[in-house]
Design a protein that fits this description.
The complex is a heterodimer. Chain A is of the alpha+beta class. Chain A contains three helices and eight strands. Chain A is globular, with a radius of gyration of 15 Å. The termini of chain B are far apart.
């Protein structure tokens, strides 16, 4: 599966890759995000639990890559990040499907409330990506409106 | 970033109008990031091990078969199919549940179907499970 990254998401990736914050190795987090993206490229729509889960409240065919830390034995002062990376399937007229990665974040402090704000942001970014990549349209979830 | 004793991962909240034409002109494939990781042997090793963990959860039919060190011919004999049919089966995105179940059984496993619902416990589905 071809995977493309929204520029804002890439900016976030570069930010994580670059920061050194009080001994916390964010580069490790960056690598784990990229492992999920590599898996998305490898498995495409076959990627499922626990590494990817559909976002059923979205209008678009939106999914979340998930990285839930295995243990608390990490250097992070506030607990290891619970990463969620939202991506959406888009297709063109020939039916080619690709995955556009839109938003990343840590939902550990917000819990499932993280999705509410970021779902809209993700769908807006996917719309914007499609404007810059003419021919591609977001795949709308069955029964989804937008 | 403000000083705090609890480091937090940055928030990915750039607005739509903050994305510049120069940003859009950049390559938007993930390659640049994989190359950056490949430049650091420790990071590449961490990526490989994270990916290996993910691969343990995820498998295509072909990967299930290979993990059990079976050939398409062996599976084909068990399913009374030609090797070429097994090859096609492994690439199919849709098939009868009975076909899928017999493939998994041929590989020495058992197919379980689980339906998940928001806010309720997962249900083990019993579909045509008479064998």
């Amino acid at each position: 599966m071809e995977v493309r990254l929204h520029p804002s998401f890439q900016r976030w990736l570069d930010e994580i890759a670059g920061i050194e914050d009080e001994g916390v190795d964010w580069f490790e987090v960056y690598v784990e995000v990229m492992a999920l993206i590599a898996a998305l490229g490898e498995f495409g729509r076959d990627l499922g639990d626990p590494d990817s889960h559909p976002v059923v409240t979205a209008s678009y065919d939106l999914h979340a890559l998930r990285r839930t830390p295995p243990s608390a034995t990490t250097p992070y002062a506030d607990g290891p990040p619970v990463l969620r990376i939202l991506y959406c399937y888009v297709s063109n007229e020939s039916g080619d499907e690709i995955a556009v990665v839109a938003v990343g974040g840590d939902k550990s402090s917000l819990g499932n409330a993280w999705y509410q704000a970021n779902l809209t942001r993700a769908q807006d970014r996917v719309d914007q990506w499609c404007q810059h990549n003419p021919g591609f349209k977001p795949i709308v979830r069955r029964g989804g409106k937008r | 970033m403000t000083a705090t004793n609890k480091p937090k991962i940055p928030v990915d909240d750039q607005g739509l109008d903050e994305v510049t034409d120069a940003d859009w002109a950049q390559d938007d494939s993930p390659n640049r990031h994989f190359e950056r990781i490949a430049g650091d042997p420790a990071a590449q090793e961490a990526l490989n091990s994270a990916l290996a963990q993910i691969r343990q959860h995820q498998a295509t039919l072909a990967q299930v078969r290979k993990a059990k060190q079976l050939t398409q011919t062996t599976i084909g004999e068990l399913l009374e199919m030609d090797q070429s049919e097994v090859s096609r089966l492994e690439r199919r995105s849709d098939m009868l549940l009975s076909t899928l179940r017999s493939f998994i059984q041929a590989a020495g496993g058992e197919l379980q179907l689980v339906a998940t619902f928001p806010e309720s416990t997962p249900v083990q589905l019993l579909v045509g499970d008479e064998s």
